[in-house]
Design brief:
The protein is an alpha/beta fold. It has one domain (35-46, 76-225): P-loop containing nucleotide triphosphate hydrolases (Rossmann fold), CATH 3.40.50. Helices cover 35% and strands 29% of the residues. It has helices at 47-54, 77-87, 103-115, 120-132, 148-160, 178-195, 206-209, and strands at 3-16, 19-32, 36-40, 62-67, 70-71, 88-91, 166-170, 198-202, 214-219, 222-225. The strands form two sheets. It has a six-stranded mixed β-sheet, with helices on both faces. A four-stranded antiparallel β-sheet has the order 2-1-4-5, with helices on one face. β4 and β5 form a beta hairpin. α3 (103-115) crosses α4 and α5 (148-160) runs parallel beside α6 (178-195). It is globular and about 50 Å long. The model has no long low-confidence stretch (mean pLDDT 90).
């Protein structure tokens, strides 16, 4: 079995008011290529911390994260940035769209950051992604002119523009009503099925988590299979 990412013995400690907070206590997790994994757990359990470590956004106190057989935290900052921009997409609870850019420009911007130029290929890819998400009539609109669900779909398109092998979603439905949130998760499942993108979904909603192929729960710094 081929794994897109493998995390081994991940620990994360924070210093707070002179004491140490041991958030993650030796996490092991491997994500098979094309899998859809949900991560649930109580608030403050460390779900987002683990997701950020898997995506190269937050260095672990101990342990290693292997992508392509190499520990990404053995790389310098430039190397780590290249891994993130080339192979990992991120979708967050807050959309983080740039208000002064149109929908199309927001999506293309991620491709520009990676390549340093705006290309016709990136423009075509951005249009295809947005049309596939039902946003064909919105490409020239600005984020303030969109609903929350539409903004999140733009954020998903932006995360996919560089064709990442791994898509990490941190509470992507947290700002949406239940119906719109279910639509967003349906889009994510479609991406996973049609593109074979390995997907990790952090959610506090057990019902949404059950749509994933594998569910883990994080509690007391430890990872439990089956969401229990």
């Amino acid at each position: 079995m081929k794994y897109v990412v493998e995390a081994r013995n991940i620990h994360k400690l924070y210093s707070h008011s002179g004491s140490k907070l041991h958030i993650l206590k030796g996490i092991d997790i491997s994500l098979p290529e094309g899998s859809f994994t949900a991560l649930i757990g109580p608030s403050g359990a460390g779900k987002s911390t683990l997701l950020h470590i898997l995506g190269g956004l937050d260095r672990p106190t101990q342990g290693e994260v292997l992508i392509g057989g190499r520990d990404i935290y053995g790389l310098d900052d430039a190397g780590l940035c290249a891994v993130r921009s080339g192979g990992i997409g991120f979708v967050f609870q807050f959309y983080h769209l740039l208000p002064e850019f149109t929908v199309l420009e927001n999506v293309m911007l991620a491709a520009f950051i990676r390549s340093g130029k705006f290309s016709s290929a990136a423009g075509k890819e951005a249009m295809e992604l947005l049309c596939g998400m039902g946003l064909k009539e919105r490409v020239t609109h600005f984020p303030s002119q969109l609903s929350g669900g539409e903004q999140q779909r733009v954020a998903i398109a932006r995360a996919l523009i560089n064709r990442p092998a791994l898509l990490l979603c941190d509470e992507p439905t947290g700002n949406l009503d239940s119906a719109t949130g279910a639509e967003v998760v349906s889009i994510l499942k479609k991406i996973n099925g049609e593109r074979g993108t390995t997907l990790v979904l952090v959610t506090h909603n057990p019902e949404l988590a059950r749509t994933a192929g594998t569910v883990y729960s994080l509690k007391d710094g430890l990872l439990h299979n089956g969401g229990n």
